[in-house]
Every structure is written in structure tokens, then in C-alpha cells.
Amino acid sequence: MKKLLFFAAALCCSMSLFAGGEIFEAWVTYGVNDEAVEAHQITAEDVELGTIAKLQLDSFFIKVWQDAGDHFDVVQVGYQFDEDTPVYVDAVFKRDLGGNDHEWAVEMKQNIVAALADGDHVFKVWFKGIINKGEDPGEAEKWMSNGGNNYKFNFKLNTTSTGIDHVVGNAASLKVMENGVLYIYRNGVKYDTNGKAIR
What is the mean pLDDT of the chain? Predict the structure, then answer.
């Protein structure tokens, strides 16, 4: 009987020491250049964005699950360009997904490459959570970081003019990048990439 009581006490102690939960899925919404912002699930495979002039990052959505009695107090997105100093952004609780699953979100809504110099870059992302923050025992960190390799978006930034595109008769068309937005000049008139004249 004493052995049984000791085992039960040890089991309770071990459960409190190892808080149950996981960050199990993440999505990012972004648009390249003037493309519409779309949602993409983050996977272990590197994303090749090619040559870009603008990366409009809209938001992250992070899904977590937690054992009954445990709770995520902090969920963060970590990111880094190349080997720069990592940045952490706190997510906010968004909604209950049912069961013990929840969704957290981070809104960015910015061109995140605006301050970068032209050239080759890597945008790295990972996710961190803290369960039962400040509770002793029970606090635990949870990570989703592709096994410590992080999730990578590779791209070449080119925000300069692309030069003469083509000539039709005597009318030259010039593609120019202005503040990360591509415009086309033809016969002295400025157009967007949909062919609409900019007044």
C-alpha cells in the first residue's frame, strides 16, 4: 500500500513538472511585390521567393494544444534576417478551436524588407510558447523551430530600376521599382502592373 501511494505521489509530481502542450501548426500570410496577400502553411521545406522588391507580411497564425489543467500564457513569433539580432513578437489569443486546441495571432502588416540592402537574404522564422508561466512547479517552454534549423524564406532583393523592357515601334516601355512597387512608364505615362494609368 505504501508503495502504491508513493507511486501515485511521484506520478502527480512528474505530471506537474512536465506541462503538457505543443505548438503544432503555423501559417503566415504574405504577398510578394504587388501580388495579393495569401495564407501559406509553414513547413520544414525552405521557401524560394526568387527576386523580389517587396515582401508584404500581413500576419502569423499559431495553433497550440494543451493538457487539461495546463495553459499557454505566452506565444511568440521569433524571426531574423540573415545573421542579424533575433526579434520576438508576442502573439495574442485569437480563438478557441475546440477541445484543448487554441489559435494565437500576430499582425505585422508591413513591408518587412524595406530596410534591407539589395542582394541575397534569408528570412528565418520560429515559434516559442510558455505554459504555466511563473508556476512552480509546472512552467515549461515549447518550441516549433524545425528541429532548431528554423523555417527559411530565401530571396534576392532588387529595388532598383529593371531598365528598358522592350520596344514596340518608337514606344519604349520602362519598368521602374519605386518604394518596392513596380510601375511601367510608356510614352511618358505611368501605369501600374494591371495597365491602369496613374494620374
Answer: 82
- Would you call 186 exposed, middle or buried from its count of C-beta atoms within 10 A (0-12, 13-18, 19+)? middle
CB count in 10 Å sphere of residue 20: 16
Cβ-contact 139, 19 below 8 angstroms = yes
The DSSP secondary-structure symbol of 196 reads P
Which amino acid type is present at position 84? D
| HSE-CB of 178 using CA atoms within 13 angstroms | 10
Q: Does domain 2-157 have CATH number 2.60.40?
A: yes
| C-alpha cell of residue 162 | 529593371
Are 129 and 141 spatial neighbours (Cβ–Cβ below 8 Å)? yes
CB atoms within 10 A of CB 105: 16
Over residues 175-193, the pLDDT tens digits come to 666 666 777 776 667 777 7
Task: Locate 29 and state its grid cell.
Answer: 500570410
Which residue intervals of the chain bear CATH 2.60.40?
2-157
